[in-house]
Amino acid sequence: MFLTFLASISEHHGRRPVVVAVAAVIVLPLVAWLLPERPAAVGGLRPVGETTDAPLAPVSPPKNPIKVAFGTLAMASKRRAISGCCSSASSCAARVPTVMSART
């Protein structure tokens, strides 16, 4: 099925999209497997801005990225407003002209 799909793409669009698709199928899993998750995984490096005498942060166990993404989406959908923003759209719209007039 995969080969017939690639043949169809090759017939209608040329060989370049097929080469890109095959390269992506080969390279993306390889990069995901070899790319380190934390700076400490590369020779004990520390995060940017962290001092050398600060203790290393504890490593949390790996989590399912799909579960984390949908859990975050579910949590965000239950909130009415973004924190730090106006509580309603009407008050945000009321503030925009005053901010714009203050800039001019």
Quick tags:
mainly alpha; 57% helix; flat; disordered C terminus
Write up this protein.
With 104 residues, the chain is mainly alpha-helical. The chain has a domain at 1-38. 57% of the residues lie in helices and 0% in strands. It has helices at residues 2-13, 16-34, 65-77, 89-103. The longest helix has 19 residues, at 16-34. It is flat and about 60 Å long. The relative contact order is 0.05.
Short description, anyone?
The chain contains four helices and no strands. By secondary structure, the chain is mostly helical.
Topology:
Blueprint: H1 2-13, H2 16-34, H3 65-77, H4 89-103
Approximately what portion of the residues adopt beta-strand conformation? under 5%
SSE order in H/E notation?
Answer: HHHH
- Sheet bearing the most strands, described? none
Low-confidence runs of at least 5 consecutive residues: 96-104
Amino- and carboxy-terminal Cα gap:
61 Å
Shape: flat
- Rg measurement, Å: 24 Å
| Average pLDDT rating | 76
- Structure classification: mainly alpha
How many H/I helices? 4
| Strand tally | 0
Helix percentage range: 55-70%
